[in-house]
Every structure is written in structure tokens, then in C-alpha cells.
Amino acid sequence: MPEFSYPKPLSSEITPKEIYYSRRKVLGVGLAGVSVAASGQLKAAPLKTHTGAFPSSLDPTPKEFATGYNNFYEFGMEKDDPVLHSGDFHPLPWTLEISGLVNKPQQIDVEELLKSKEIEERIYRMRCVEGWSMVIPWDGIPLRSLLMLAEPLSSARYVAFESVVRPSEMAGQKDGISGISWPYVEGLRLDEAMHPLSLLAVGMYGDSLPNQNGAPIRLVVPWKYGFKGIKSIQRIRLVKDMPSTTWNKLAPDEYGFYANVNPKVDHPRWSQATERVIGSKSLFGEKRQPTLMFNGYGEQVADLYKDMDLRVNF
Ligand SMILES: Nc1nc2c(c(=O)[nH]1)N[C@H]1C(S)=C(S)[C@@H](COP(=O)(O)O)O[C@H]1N2
Ligand SMILES: [Mo]
């Protein structure tokens, strides 16, 4: 049992791809099998979505990759564990709590939120710290809209997020193998959380979120590594001090609080200069492309960090 595992660079990084895929049967025949086996749990419901403030011409990753190749350690540590083992998870009804340093604490009924006319589509790049990427069309509500409802106090400086704890429905919370102490927790500085790009997604590809992607509501912060995008959120608290975060607790020298995508700051065990494009094909197999500073969102977010040394605050 590994003491802690994440970004062990996954077997997919260290074994030749062909072997990895045939072993896990993630792709090809295996993937088709997965979608059939899992179709019972997807129960995707179409959402009313409109193109919002940030239209994009990026080409989305084929849906079967975005919903079949996942990190969601509550359901296991392999990329196909979430799609294979999240079928017993029941995301609705769901109450999202917003509390802490606010004037008006909120209990948000996510079933109601799913009917909201404010749901917009955001096609975002998604870069995992493990060195792979996708482009995902999310449907959601800007995080700032919900935070504003709660009216943060001036003493609030950070936002702390907590995922659900349900060992009876989440095998990875029962077996203890990952070494994570549940709930999975994440955090943002308040100005990052209020940035218009920060999204609470309730859907993807025009339908409600599949369990494996963080149903019924998850965070998406496109200029940061994927692990900041905490799934199946139950509680959001406005706080004074920097909250602790799951991967930072496990390996503080490898995963910082900020986790901004940065091709010039390598992970201690691998380079962050390029990324595997999941679901892509070239003559030579999967494509690799250069990783962009702030994952390509520098124009919108660089100002948030103008006085910071990004090597120290990685
Ligand atoms: N609760 C929870 N949230 C999580 C994770 C997790 O294991 N548990 N994994 C993170 C990581 S490492 C990534 S890359 C993204 C993956 O999101 P996706 O599977 O929807 O692509 O979810 C993040 N959110
Ligand atoms: Mo990740």
C-alpha cells in the first residue's frame, strides 16, 4: 500500500500506453463496454444552457473520454474506477451549504439550481497536474453568483470547500488505500473564487453531471491544475485563514495551495512543460502539446498574482 499515491505518475505515464490500456481496458472495446455497463447510472438530464460571457472555439474532447477517464479517489484510484464504481452513489436530493463569514448563510437546493435559467456553457481547457489535458464543455453557474447571495463579510479572505463523505456509496472512502483523510477538501483565495471564470458546474456536454465527474455540483477553475476542481461539494465556508487542502496535506512539497498551471515550474518528479491530449490521435499515437501559462487564461487571471513569486507560491 502506497503511503500516499496521487500523481504517482499513474501507471499510464510509466507503462507503455498500449499495455496500460489493454490492462485496464479503458479504451476501445473496454470503453464501449464501460458506457454500456454504466448507462444505468448516468441518468443524464438535459439542462437549459446558454452561451455565457466566455464563448470559446476550443474543440471538446470526445465525451466518452471525459466521462470514462477520471480522477475521483472516493471511488478508487484508477482512471476507470469512477465510471465503474460510482453507480450506487445517489446525488439527489442535495443541499449545498454556504456558511462561515457571511451575512446570509445559504442552504441551496441543487435540484432547484439545475432548473436555473442562469446556467451557462463554458468550454474550458482542463489540465491535470499528472501531465494530461482535455477540453470540457461544462454547464454551470459562476461561483461568484452564489457567494454574492451569501454576502461575504469583509473579514472573509478565503473560501474552503468540502466534498461529501458517504463510505457506504464510495468504496474508496472505506478501503483506506489512497491515504486521503475524508472529506476531500480544497480552497481558493476569495478574489480567485470571485473571478468570473470560476464556475460551479452542474452539468457537462449539455446534460447533468455524471457521478464520476462530481455530481451533482463541482468546482471548475480552469487556470489551475485539475485537483483544485473539487467534486460533489457539500459545504462552502468563507474563512479568514488559508484553508488546508487534500493534496497539500499529503505532499506539501509537490502540491501547493495555488496550483496555477505553469509550464515553467516542474513537479518535483516530472516536467510540466507539455501535456498528453486525452482522446487525440496523430500518426504517432496520442498528441502532446505545450502547456500554456495559467492554462491559456493568463490574460484574464495573471493580475491576481502580479505581486507573487510563482515558484514559491506554486
Ligand atoms: N472529491 C474529489 N474531487 C476531485 C478529485 C478527487 O479525487 N476527489 N480529483 C481531482 C483531480 S486530480 C482532477 S484531475 C479532477 C478530474 O475531474 P474529471 O474527472 O471531471 O475530469 O477532479 C478533481 N476533483
Ligand atoms: Mo488531477
UniProtKB/TrEMBL annotation:
Gene3D superfamilies: Oxidoreductase, molybdopterin-binding domain (3.90.420.10). It catalyses: L-methionyl-[protein] + a quinone + H2O = L-methionyl-(S)-S-oxide-[protein] + a quinol; L-methionyl-[protein] + a quinone + H2O = L-methionyl-(R)-S-oxide-[protein] + a quinol. Mo-molybdopterin binds at N70, Y73, E74, C128, S163, N213, R218, G229, I230, K231. Its cofactor is Mo-molybdopterin. Signal peptide: none annotated. Residues 91-247 form the Oxidoreductase molybdopterin-binding domain. Its EC number is 1.8.5.-. Keywords: Metal-binding, Molybdenum, Oxidoreductase, Signal. Belongs to the MsrP family. Part of the MsrPQ system that repairs oxidized periplasmic proteins containing methionine sulfoxide residues (Met-O), using respiratory chain electrons. Thus protects these proteins from oxidative-stress damage caused by reactive species of oxygen and chlorine generated by the host defense mechanisms. MsrPQ is essential for the maintenance of envelope integrity under bleach stress, rescuing a wide series of structurally unrelated periplasmic proteins from methionine oxidation. Heterodimer of a catalytic subunit (MsrP) and a heme-binding subunit (MsrQ). This is Protein-methionine-sulfoxide reductase catalytic subunit MsrP. It comes from Swingsia samuiensis.
